[in-house]
Structure formats: C-alpha cells, structure tokens
Design goal:
single chain, 110 residues, alpha+beta
C-alpha cells in the first residue's frame, strides 16, 4: 500500500494526505488538515471526520469527536500539511465534507 491517499473535494480538487495509524504518537508541530478514517476490506479509506489544526503535535489527543471515532472504528489519521492561514485550512475542510459525507462531521460544525 501507498504512504499517501488522495481525497477529492466537492470542487474536484485533489488533496494528498499522508497515512498514519490511529495509534501513532508523534506528529510534527505543523499546521494542516487531517481526516480520521477506517481502512475497509477493499483497502480503501472511509473518512469518518475531517478537520484542521494549527499544530498536528497537539491536536489528536482527547479529540472532541473521540466517541464518534470509536463508534465508527477509526483506524488511521490522514494528514496534509497546509497553510498557517486558518481560512485556507477551513476552505479545504468545507470542500471535503460535502464530497465525503464524514459521519462525525454531521454531529457538529467544522
């Protein structure tokens, strides 16, 4: 399997994400976008939640949608280093959510 996966927004824009196990503990202190996902039997990633952060190194511990992630059997964190400008990261989230319909995003605002 590849170390990356491409997610497509509703606009058709491709976004390349690095793949890490949900159990990964070391992420660099960089801004970007991320997705929690489950690897399916067909070796595809089913995206459960899409978000953005100013700092990957602190974002994933005690995440606010953790109960939903557990209920949906999240197995991986997909990360995409992005701009320090939060509005750029938020635009990516808003492009991906309608295309992927992640169940944990439907519970709250992005």
């Amino acid at each position: 399997m590849s170390d990356t996966v491409t997610l497509y927004g509703i606009s058709g824009t491709p976004y390349r994400y690095w793949i890490a196990s949900i159990k990964a503990s070391a992420f660099k202190a960089k801004p970007g976008n991320y997705a929690f996902a489950r690897l399916t039997r067909r070796n595809e990633y089913y995206v459960i939640y899409v978000g953005e952060t100013a700092d990957f190194s602190t974002r994933f511990y005690g995440h606010h949608v953790a109960p939903c992630l557990r209920a949906n059997d999240a197995t991986h964190i997909l990360t995409h280093t992005n701009s320090e400008d939060r509005s750029v990261r938020e635009r990516e989230v808003l492009d991906l959510i309608p295309a992927l319909s992640p169940p944990c995003n439907s519970l709250l605002d992005p």
